[in-house]
Each structure stands twice: as structure tokens, then as C-alpha cells.
Write a structure and sequence with these properties.
Blueprint: H1 2-27, H2 31-34, H3 39-51, H4 59-64, H5 68-74, E1 83-87, H6 94-103, E2 109-114, E3 120-121, E4 124-125, H7 132-143, E5 150-159, H8 160-168, E6 172-173, E7 179-186, E8 202-204, E9 209-212, E10 215-218, E11 223-225
Parallel strand pairs: 1-2, 2-5, 5-7, 6-8, 7-9
Antiparallel strand pairs: 3-4, 8-11, 9-10
Helix pairs in contact: 6-7, 7-8
Length: about 230
């Protein structure tokens, strides 16, 4: 019986995903069909898409960019904008990040900065990425004014330098941060001369779980990054 129930549940989820994709395809077919459904129904569709990871990063921003009608519905719920996932393999979508910061209002933020291909640089697998740190810095500078709303922060890079640069650009009191993850796939420095001491301070009084290089450390006291 349990296996039959699970099979039925899987079929239901698959069917729902198919129906959602069909609706998205219909909506994007033309301006008239985009407004065919009332906002309450469209909101439910967006909620399903937001709750389903299969639709990828920046789902809320992508649907809000279709037309003004979609934008108005999607931006009406701060919850849709409280999960921020940014890929740093190439130039980050700074405009989208600003939209997430605006529409998330006062919601706590779950932030992930990572790469689509963790070990692949711009020229191939296991190659260095000399601009990764600069891209990370640009993203952190947009996120840092909202540091008091961070609930979780995960940074996964190729280079250790990029982790250092990310922390250098973090400052203030992350009073709601409870989970912090810092991982780099290559722990050697690109340029030791550029590896300067930290010049900023990030206070994390509520962090309960710190992950460094894949190792989880449970913290009984607060943790501060300081120069």
C-alpha cells in the first residue's frame, strides 16, 4: 500500500508540473493570453513554481519580466523574493538582485552564491577564474545593505581568494543569520600579494551552524569576522 501511495503522489506531482509548464507556454504565446487568468489564479501558479526547485534560479524575476501584469502579481508577495540564488560563473544579474532586495521587503533572506559548474573556469575544467572575486564583490555590495535580513548565506567558489573578498565586503551585524557556509574547490591563492588582511567586520551573533569547506561546525557562541 505505501508504494502505491508514493506512486500516486509522484504521478500527481508530475501531472501538476506538466500543467504548470503548459500554462507558462500558453501565457508566453501572446499578450492577450497573459491576462487570461485572474490575479488570484496566476498567484497560485507562481506559488507552485516558487515551491518547485525544477524551475531554476531567479524564477520570480523571470516570470516578473514577462509583462507588467505578471510583474504586478509576482511582486505582490515578498515571499517569492526571499530566496536569492546567484550563479557567479559569468557577470551576475545585478538588476535582478536589486529587484529581489526591493520586492522581498522586510523578509529574511536565504542567499546562495555559487557556480553552475563548480570546478570549471572560463577556459575549461580545473582552470582558474581570475575575475571570480570581482564578481563576488559586486554581488555582496548589493546584498550588504540588507545584512540584518540575512537568514542563511552560502558562498561556493573555485578560489579561496573569492571567499576572502566576499568577507571583506561584508560588514555590519547579521542579526538574523543562523547558517553560514563558505566553500572553495581550490584552496590555493591566485595571488598571495593580493591576499590582504580583512578590512571589514561582520558580526553574526545568532549563527548556529558554520560550514567551512564542507565540514559542519556547530557553534555555541557568536562568530565574528574581523580584521
Amino acid at each position: 500500500m505505501p508504494s502505491e501511495v508514493m506512486a500516486c503522489a509522484d504521478d500527481t506531482v508530475t501531472s501538476a508540473k506538466t500543467r504548470l509548464q503548459n500554462l507558462v507556454n500558453a501565457f508566453t504565446a501572446g499578450a492577450s493570453t497573459r491576462r487570461h487568468f485572474p490575479p488570484e489564479i496566476l498567484f497560485m501558479i507562481f506559488q507552485f513554481g516558487f515551491d518547485t526547485s525544477d524551475f531554476g534560479a531567479m524564477f520570480s524575476y523571470n516570470v516578473a519580466s514577462v509583462c507588467k501584469y505578471w510583474h504586478d502579481v509576482a511582486s505582490s508577495s515578498p515571499t517569492f523574493w526571499s530566496t536569492v540564488e546567484v550563479f557567479i560563473d559569468s557577470n551576475p544579474p545585478l538588476r535582478a538582485i536589486k529587484a529581489y532586495m526591493t520586492h522581498s521587503a522586510f523578509r529574511e533572506l536565504d542567499i546562495t552564491l555559487s557556480r553552475k559548474e563548480p570546478d570549471r573556469g572560463p577556459w575549461g575544467k580545473n582552470e582558474a577564474d581570475g575575475y571570480e572575486a570581482a564578481r563576488i564583490a559586486a554581488v555582496i555590495q548589493l546584498l550588504n545593505p540588507h545584512v540584518r535580513r540575512w537568514r542563511s548565506l552560502s558562498i561556493k567558489t573555485i578560489h579561496l581568494d573569492s571567499i576572502r573578498v566576499a568577507l571583506t565586503n561584508c560588514c555590519g551585524v547579521a542579526s538574523e543569520l543562523v547558517e553560514l557556509e563558505l566553500c572553495s574547490s581550490r584552496n590555493e591563492l591566485l595571488d598571495s600579494r593580493a591576499f590582504r588582511p580583512l578590512v571589514a567586520e561582520l558580526e553574526t551573533p545568532r549563527v548556529q551552524e558554520l560550514t567551512l569547506g564542507g565540514e559542519v561546525i556547530s557553534l555555541a557562541t557568536s562568530w565574528t569576522v574581523t580584521g
